[in-house]
Amino acid sequence: MTNTLPFQQIDLCNAIENKTQRHTFSAEDEIIRIGQHVKVIPIVLSGAIDVYRKDKNEHVLFLYTIKPLESCAMTLQSCYSNQPSEIFAITSIETEILAVPANLLETWMNEFPEWKKYVINNFSLRFKELLKVIDNISFHKLDERLVEYLNNKTRTTGEKILKISHQAIANDLNSSREVVSRLLKQLEQKGKLTLGRNKIELM
Where are the domains of the chain? Predict the structure, then answer.
């Protein structure tokens, strides 16, 4: 199990082997809900998980994507502080995770330097990605954000054809379906992509 993970410490690898479980989810499964007391820390083995925030008016903001060998900093924070989740997370494609019991987070940080480094690195990575989200919203035009979003999706899935609706893209970019559809049509006219029913093929 552990040979795909970024750990070399034998005691840590043995603990992972004995204390964790693997779970596989289909695309678009909600695996973490807002208000949920998180019992396991997900480490993505394959696939991808998109993480979102939602305000009291049901406005949704896409935060970041958890890719293979990464975990969710917001979930780590919830587990560490024993607070309910402030985010929700949905698989973007079929995804396999390694589920680490939340009650082991602090114990393993004290026992295993590699695990402590892994947790800190995930916090650092997500902090940089959240800064990028703020920069994109504040300084980049929506058409630039749309192109970057599509490119990130293709890198994550490894596919040139994205099975996604215009409304889903609009939700992730905090925009409207009409605006996203118009920008996608412009990109199609420029030969950047081809539009189909609930799918987009990048050229």
Answer: 2-138, 141-202
**CA angle centred on 167, ends 189 and 144, rounded to 5°:** 50
92 phi and psi angles, rounded to 5 deg: -90, -25
Give the pair of three-digit tokens for residue 56: 């009291």
| Rounded-to-integer distance, Cα 75 and Cα 103, Å | 13
SS3 148: helix
Beta strands in 67-198 (DSSP E): 88-91, 95-101, 161-162, 193-196
CATH class entry, domain 2-138 = mainly beta
Count the Cβ atoms, other than its own, within 10 Å of residue 39.
10
* pTM score, whole prediction: 0.76
Residue 188: which residues within 8 A CB-CB, separation 6 or more? 194, 195
Between CA 133 and CA 26 the distance in angstroms is: 27
Domain at 141-202, CATH class: mainly alpha
R_g (Cα) of the chain, nearest Å: 18
3-state SS assignment for residue 79: helix
Residues 193, 202: contact at Cβ < 8 Å?
yes
> Residue ranges of the chain with pLDDT lower than 50?
1-3
**pLDDT tens-digit profile of 26-59?**
999 999 999 999 999 999 999 999 999 888 887 8
